[in-house]
Design brief:
mainly beta
Length: 231
């Protein structure tokens, strides 16, 4: 097994998986119901942990996203190692099975992200530019918006979407305090609009603890809403 493979094995063991206990503090853990095009399409289970302090401090976020798309069924397992407190991406991997199967591994090395991509068409090594503020923001993964919760309005940060190989910018707008319904509950939330460098709009809702309650991406007709906080 090569050094990069060993790195990701260690990362996976350190982070654990949804539903399993691990050392450290659980920052957030829960489940989203996902709809695409107004049709219930699946679920996302996730956990975000902060297992260390000092030089060992880090954030690990992993999940299981199960979707039924018009093209077929898909399961994604993203795993992110980020630096606190902001969530700047250091290492990342995602394995998608079913429709559009792919496996991506990404590791930061200086001013670059080194990526290995494996799919039905073969294996490819790629490089992406690394910035001091880069967040991973994967398509159809709602819990990654946790790492955008503290963005200052009108201060863009860089994003990386490893599965599609796209990089860009995202900017938060002014947050608005609103009340939203989760199941039978009325919940106070902070509604934050985002705009990408291409002009695409997105919206996330956060509670007072910074937990992601809801995510909408109109361009994908994607809505994810927390179900574990429903009373």
């Amino acid at each position: 097994m090569n050094a990069r493979a060993l790195l990701f094995v260690a990362l996976y063991i350190g982070a654990g998986s949804p539903g399993l206990s691990a050392q450290g503090v659980v920052v957030d853990e829960g489940t989203f119901a996902v709809s695409i095009g107004g049709v219930p399409s699946g679920t996302e289970e996730f956990v975000i942990r902060r297992p260390g302090v000092g030089r060992e401090d880090a954030l690990f976020a992993n999940g299981v996203v199960t979707l039924t798309l018009p093209e077929g069924r898909q399961e994604m397992r993203p795993l992110l190692h980020a630096m606190p407190p902001d969530g700047v991406a250091m290492r990342y991997q995602i394995s998608a099975t079913g429709f559009d199967a792919i496996e991506v591994q990404v590791a930061r090395s200086g001013r670059r992200y080194l990526a290995t991509i494996r799919s039905d068409v073969g294996a490819e090594d790629r490089e992406f530019q690394a910035h001091g503020d880069t967040r991973v923001l994967e398509r159809h993964v709602a819990h990654h918006y946790y790492f955008l919760r503290d963005l200052r309005a009108d201060r863009p940060v860089h994003t990386l979407e490893p599965r599609t190989g796209s990089q860009g910018l995202i900017t938060a707008g002014e947050a608005i305090q609103v009340t939203i319904r989760l199941g039978l509950n009325q919940v106070q939330a902070r509604r934050v609009p985002f705009t990408t460098g291409t002009g695409e709009t997105r919206t996330a809702w956060y509670d007072r603890q910074g937990r992601v309650l809801r995510v909408e991406v109109p361009a994908l007709r994607f809505v994810a809403e927390r179900t574990d906080l429903v009373g």
